[in-house]
Batch of 3 targets.
Target 1
Amino acid sequence: MITIGDKAPDLLGKDQDGNEVRLSHYPGRKVALYFYPKDNTSGCTAQACSLRDHRDDLRDAGYEVIGVSVQDEASHRKFIDKHALNFPLIADTDHQLVEAFGVWQEKSLYGRKYMGTVRTTFLIDENGVVTHILGAKQIKTKIHGEQLLQTIKG
């Protein structure tokens, strides 16, 4: 499980187009790496659209946005196309990244227990070090882009 002060792995995985995504592909840039449960669900769509709408402001603050979920590349491509998302989505189908970051956890819905991704955002500096973590209880999906900007500005 990755915590504040830890170095994030350089290799993040493959995006919606099958391209390898690494932190080192963003030299001198910081990254907002956000984990979300599932493409095209109401909360995940609201969160992605908020980040889309604030991407330029986040970039001005030195951050690139990268999303991660366990759906495959085709699902991510449809999600991006449907909502005009302007950042990559990593297809973590083997659960390597969600497990490394500690966001693949037991969840419960209507008394049924299952494993799933806990909505979490990691802010990573230009040296690959995690500086902030926003957990599921802190994240407000409809205004997540604004939340990140407030967190960045302190």
Note: The chain has one domain: 11-153.
Target 2
Amino acid sequence: MNLARLLRKRAEEGRPVRVGLIGAGKFGSMFLAQARTTVGLHLLGVADLSGARARAALERTGWDLSSQIAKDFSSALKTGRTVVTEDAMALIAADLDVIIDATGSPAAAIRHALAAVEHGRHIVLVTVEADVLAGPLLAERARKAGLVYSMAYGDQPALVCEMVDWAGAAGFRVVAAGKGTKYLPGYERSTPDTVWEHYGMTAEAAAAGGMNAQMFNSFLDGTKSAIEMAAISNATGLKAPRDGLAFPPCGAEDLARVLIPRAAGGVLQESGLVEVISCIERDGKPVARDLRWGVYVVFEAGSEDARAAYTRRCFSEYGMATDASGRYCALYRPYHLIGLELGISVAAAALRNEPTGTPDAFRSDVVAIAKKALKAGDMLDGEGGYTVWGKLLRAEDSLARRALPIGLAHKVKLLKPVAAGAVVGWDDVAIAEDETVRVRREMERTFAPKSVGNFAAA
């Protein structure tokens, strides 16, 4: 990849890649831990709504606040030190190359991405919720400005995009790609009150560890998985399953047997889908060699001709796990290192002008589904909460149903009742026409699939 070599060259030339981080939470802190040891990288600034939290994150990850922190950007540029600020827009306006948004807030991330483009900065978006909400439009604006809009390497969507790209560049047809998680039917109804029992801990122990119940519940109830698969779909061309994610239980050795079309003996409705596999069987027993923390891609040798036969033979000769026919094969990565790997995206954007995954179309969406019977006047509380969970749909189905994106289903009031398990629609809620909503509506109008026709958001 040569990124480390290119970074060293920039260091030798005295012009390191200058990067700004917005959001000093867990993901951001993991990046901070590696940024201080990455040759050729200068962390120009860290912005967070709480300056104290940003300083604590720096100190926790090994930074010396007395010698490595600058008072302003001018002195930081001269000394190679880092500014801590509560003003994200000031950081974006500073003289840097790449902005990382790790806020976790779709509204903030969209605002920061637009500002980054305005100021000529590459943008690495950790906040995948924003990418699913409006990523195709944000990426197009960045591209037209000659900038990179990128998914965050280390997070599973970017790693899956890399695997899909590898398969295509090697001449393989991708059958399925995705990640692992812990899931059982019924988890979609989980709330912050019930989440910890599924993780085998008490609420008291979780609180002592600083764990956020709603965030963890977003992973458990399938919302986060749906968001990540939508991002992969919009970046790779893979499609969403028509009925949403199925979460089939599957281990590493069975990928090429399970994640293939039903006609070939697998579980997929068709070839070319995203899917998430569960690390537990439907009876609750653990799956052998599970990929709970990993990612995978399933690909095929191709049609029944001499070339395909030769490729199948190579699969066998080199010990690849295949289905019974030998046609389907898989590669996987058992772990992902989250923010510890984020520097790959920064270096790729600044040094090669390439994203580590970027949306190029609106193929998939994640819509709000009622967890229970909801009444007029109820307030939606977003992903991982008590009222709704996020379901993966194809974009044309989401638009045809006028479904409310999960990224907008937070702090909005219902105007009418919604049955348990039903889609929450735009017409069901009172929603302010703020910047986030306007950007989303523009994305829908601009990137609506052709099968929807002349779609125009209300």
Note: Residues 157-183+222-335 form one domain.
Target 3
Amino acid sequence: MKKLLFIVIYLSIIPSVSASMKQNIIKKFKDIKNISFDFEQNINGKIENGNCIIEYPKKIYCKYNLSNQKILVSNGKSLVIKTLSSYYFYPLEKTPLDTILNKEYLIKKITNLDQRDVGDGFINFNFVENENEINIFFDKKTYNLIGWQTVDIYQNISITYLSSIKKNQKLNKKIFKIPQRN
């Protein structure tokens, strides 16, 4: 009888601990207006790094540590990837970043998803949006957003890991202006 009582109590505690962690993630994420960070990105085995600033909703500026001076910019509607020799322009809504940069949408998704403990202190939420599989990762101790992984319609895997995270900094809004072609 004691064993059965212990099992019932144990099983009733597990969901509340899990729900508490999810609520802490949501609360911390809601408080973010902008976030700046260093990143390491792995796209099908090709590793790039640099730093980014995200301003919610849907604005991002990333400067890559590459000799071709690659930058990625979204003004909330369009996404541009520019280097010394190339210029790519996309409607933001056609990319996985449209979802990743939409904090309110992510919060709604997280609220309705089950979290997964993926080891190494990470919590993961997984969903498919517009034919893109998206995994969002949070730190289990700090509840900070620490990265994402996407698989697009062409089966390209892109993993982005965030470090040196700073929240709610004063920003120069001009950085989100779409750069012109060379």
Note: Confidence is low (pLDDT under 50) at residues 1-17.
